[in-house]
C-alpha cells in the first residue's frame, strides 16, 4: 500500500498552478492508495463548485461549501482529466488571512465507506488560525478495513498550557471512542521535531506508543521535511526538521520510506517536503 502526506501550502505558494501541475503528474505516475494533505485552502469569495454531481466527493456531516478554487477540488479534477480517479474529502479548520477557508483533505483510490472530521483544538473560533482539525476515512484494502486520518497539529510548548499536548490527547481520545481495536494510520504535519527529546515526538512514539513508519523503514531516504525555504517575500530561517509523519497504532511492515519534493530528485512545491511510504498489507 502506497501512502503520501504533504502540507501543500496550496494557493499561498508562489507559482502555485505550476506546482499543482507537478504534483498531479507525480500522483498520476505513482498511483498512491491514500494521500493526506494539510493547508488546503479556497477563496472565501469564490463561486461554489458543483460537487453534488461529483461521484468521487464524500461530504462531511456539516457539508462544508466547496468552492471552485478549492485546492483539493482543482487537483482532483486535474487528475480525473489525466485518467486518474480519487475519492476525496475536505474538512475546513479555520479562516486564513481573512481571505481563505483552510483545512485538511484526504484522497483515496479505494471507495470511502465512512468519513470522520472533527476539531481537536479547545474552544477556538473559526477565524483563529490556531483552530486545528482532522479528517479521516474508512476504506477496505485486500478485504481488510483500515482507517486513515489527515492531521495538522500545533507545535510543542514548554508552558502550563501545552497546545500540542491538548490537541494530541483530544485526538487520541476521539480515535479510541470512534475506532476501538481498529488499525489506524495518521498522516500529516505534526509540528513535532523527531530530534527534540522529551517533547511532542517522544510523547507520540514513546508515551502513546504510535509507530513512526519512516523510522521502521529498512533504508529511509532523506532527512528533513521542513527545509529552509523562501515563500514569496518571507524567508524562513528555521532549523531543518522532520515534522511530517505517517504513524500507525500497530507495528506495520514498512517496505520503504522516502522524503520527496525536497528539491533533489523531485522539485520543491511547498514549504514542506512530502513523505512517501510503502506498507505491506493483507
TrEMBL record:
CDD domains assigned to the protein according to its UniProt record, in alphabetical order: RgfB-like
Pfam families: Exo_endo_phos
Entry keyword set: Endonuclease, Exonuclease, Hydrolase, Nuclease
InterPro entries per record: Endo/exonu/phosph_ase_sf (IPR036691), Endo/exonuclease/phosphatase (IPR005135), TDP2-like (IPR051547)
GO molecular function: endonuclease activity; exonuclease activity
Top-level taxon of the source organism: Bacteria
Start and end residues of each Endonuclease/exonuclease/phosphatase domain: 17-272
Name of this protein: Endonuclease/exonuclease/phosphatase
Annotated source species: Trichococcus pasteurii
Organismal lineage: Bacteria, Bacillati, Bacillota, Bacilli, Lactobacillales
